[in-house]
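[recover] target loaded
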């Protein structure tokens, strides 16, 4: 199997903190954060946090795994949203809302690092490829 063939991957080693940080980043910022796996590919690969604005996978051959694929769906559904539009309240109230939201996200992150899935399916050139997920740390 060629070193640039991602179907060689059998397991992904993932830092739960990287997965959670990538998810939060994408929810709270412009751009997207993913777990990135780069060639050469082999049976056990490390997925690392990667933030981008332009997807370069067609140039690099990298595989991007959305953090939402690595975190349990029930925990994803519990991600805290801002309570209301900040433009419609005064500065003091907006600051209280931001602080509550920040604390809620911190609590969510503590739960999410414990909710990493055991396996996932990579979509590679239109084909599905199942891999196991190994927690780092």
């Amino acid at each position: 199997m060629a070193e640039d063939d991602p179907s060689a991957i059998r397991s992904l080693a993932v830092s739960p903190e990287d997965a959670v940080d990538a998810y939060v980043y994408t929810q709270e910022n412009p751009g997207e954060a993913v777990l990135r796996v780069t060639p050469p590919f082999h049976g056990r690969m490390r997925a690392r946090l990667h933030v981008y604005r332009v997807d370069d996978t067609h140039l690099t051959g990298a595989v991007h795994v959305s953090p939402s694929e690595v975190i349990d769906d029930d925990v994803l559904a519990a991600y805290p949203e801002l309570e209301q539009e900040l433009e419609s309240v005064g500065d003091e109230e907006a600051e209280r809302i931001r602080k509550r939201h920040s604390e809620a996200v911190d609590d969510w992150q503590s739960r999410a690092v414990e909710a990493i899935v055991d396996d996932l399916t990579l979509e590679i050139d239109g084909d599905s490829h199942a891999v196991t997920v190994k927690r780092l740390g």
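[recover] notes: The chain has a mean pLDDT of 92.
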